[in-house]
Every structure is written in structure tokens, then in C-alpha cells.
Amino acid sequence: MIVRNGTGLKRGLRVFVVRNWGLILTVVVTEQAIVVISRYTRVLETDVFSTTAIGLIATVVGIFIVFRFNEAYQRWWEARTLWGALVNDSRSFAREVITLLTPDRVPNIGSNEDAAKLHRELVYRHLAYCNALRITLREQDSWDELAPFLAADELSDLQNYANKPTRLDHRQAERLAQVIGTDTAQQVLLMQLDSTLNGLYDIQGGCERIKNTAFPDEVRFISRGLVWLSAIAVPIAFLSADREIRAIEVVAVIVISLSFMVVEQLGASLKNPFENADNDTPMTALCRTIEIDLRQQLGETNVPPPMEPVASVLM
Fold first, then answer.
1. DSSP string, 147-197
2. For a Cys-Cys bond, which of 32, 114, 278, 314 suits 309, CB 3.0-4.6 Å?
3. How many C-beta atoms surround the C-beta of residue 280 within 10 A?
4. pLDDT tens column, 223-280
5. H and E: helices and strands count for the chain
6. Helices 217-237 + 247-270 axis angle, to 10
7. CA–CA separation, 45 vs 59, rounded Å?
8. Is the dihedral of CA 61, 62, 63, 69 positive or negative?
């Protein structure tokens, strides 16, 4: 995710040139071709290429691009909302584990030292769950990152499961069922914790839905085609009466064409918020935030620092 004020003039120009050099070259070549055609033929002396007609084309393109951008932004915002809910539910889960699973409420736990070990086990497994969800959504294979949070045998067993976050959440439920007894009051505690685990499944399912539901490819194809069509059509509208294109017109055409292309590309970037790109949901930073909060709830003081943006990008 690009941090606030992370897109300055230098970065903006670099992004424009790197991502849109093809469009810029196409617009310039097209303009020169139009000048040559207009000088030696009468092809462009028709109402089809009038300013009004091309203005209507630009309007249609703009409406379509805005529609695509809004749809893509909704996917991006939903992804960020889901991960915000994961942060809150993680804090709630740790609080419930630490404050409710105590020897006086659940005698099966044993001593206070046993309770502390249980709290650490459950909280650390939850940290593994959050990081496993991040790794899964980004289609990475860095499962060694879970080693600080899981026992070696559990990490090894985890490799046998296709959906590793699901397995970790399921293991949490198994562990809670082992510890909590059958007394009515204790069953109330289990129901409360189980409800929180179900909430985590809801968040995970929402993220998987965004990840696995492809944005309609026809929309991408049509929007990209319309943008390039407008890049070719717009210069025609700027032909002056003597069939010449002034310098200011060249700049105006490039700015207009780039505006369409930049918005279209931004929409293409936002529609997939789990691809480890600049506009990605900052899952690594959010996992670190969860780790800091939960480990401090355990009373630990040697916690890692928050993630810092690199080149104005927070991953």
C-alpha cells in the first residue's frame, strides 16, 4: 500500500513514464500521422471525426472507465475492511483467552503457570494463523515464517494440509475442547471462544472470495481497447482549421490520453488487492501489528517494531 503523501512529483513522473511510455509514443506517432494524412488526403474532412463526435466517444470511454474503477475500488476496500476486522478479532481472541481461561474458571487447566503456557500456545498459534492467511493469499511458499509461532512437529504436520489457515483455526478449536470441561459454565466459555473462531472463518472466507473470484476479463479487454481507441481518436479532434497541430495541442492530447490510461491501470491494480504489489493490502504490516498487540497482552516486552514503508510502500 502506498502510504499517505507517498506519491510525489518524482514518483508520479517515474510511474507515468515507465507504465505509459507505449501510450505516449503511440499518441505522438498518431498525431504526426494525422498531420501527414490531413495534408495529403481528404479522409479527415468528415463529420465522423468532428470534435462533437469524438467528444461523445471520450464521454463513453470515461463512463466505462469510471465504472470499472469503482468496481475495482470496492474489491480493494472490502479487502482492507476484512483485514481490519481480523486485527480487531485477533485482539478480542487474545483478550478472551487470557482473561477467561484461568484455573478458577477452568480447573482442567491446572496451575497459573500451566494457564500461562496455554495462553501463549493459543495466542502464538493465532499469530501463525494470521501469517498463514497472508502467505496463502499472496500464493507464496514461505512457511518457515511460521516457525517462531508453532512447535516443530505442528509446523511439519501443517505441510500436509492444502488450506493451512483452516487447519490452524481447526486446531485451536480442538485444543480448546480438550482443555474446557463439560460443566455448563465452562461450556459457555467454549461457546464464546468458538464464536470468535467462527468469525475468523468468515474473514478468511471473504478474503478467499476476493482472491478466487476473477474480475470479468471482458471488462478488462473492452476498457483497455476503448482507452487505446480514445488515444488514437482524441488527436483528430485537435486538428486546427489549417490541419496543423500546435505544441499546446500535443500536450493537451497527451494529458487527456494519459488520464484515461492511468485511471484504467489504477483500476486494474486495485481489483487484485492480494498480489504483493504497490497497492496491495498491507498484510505484512497488519500481521506485525497483530503480533505486537497480542504479545504485549501476554505481558511480553521484547516485541518487534512496527513495519516501516520502503520507498513509500507499506507491504
1. TTTS-HHHHHHHTT-SSHHHHHHHHHHHHHHHHS-SSHHHHHHHHHHHHHH
2. 314
3. 23
4. 777 777 776 666 666 655 455 556 666 666 667 767 777 777 776 777 888 887 777 8
5. 9, 0
6. 170
7. 22
8. positive
**What are the structural domain ranges in the chain?**
22-297
Question: Position 107: which residue type?
Answer: P
Q: Which residue is listed with cell 487447566?
A: 109
Q: Which residue bears the cell 470511454?
A: 61
Distances (CA, A) of 39 to 12, 59, 237, 241: 37, 28, 15, 12
Read off the C-alpha cell for 46.
Answer: 468528415
Instruction: List 313's β-bridge partners, or say none.
Output: 2, 310
Q: Which residues pair with 310 in a beta bridge?
A: 313
Q: Please state the φ and ψ torsions of residue 249, each to the nearest 5 degrees.
A: -70, -35
Predicted TM-score (pTM) of this structure: 0.82
Which single residue is written with the C-alpha cell 478468511? 204
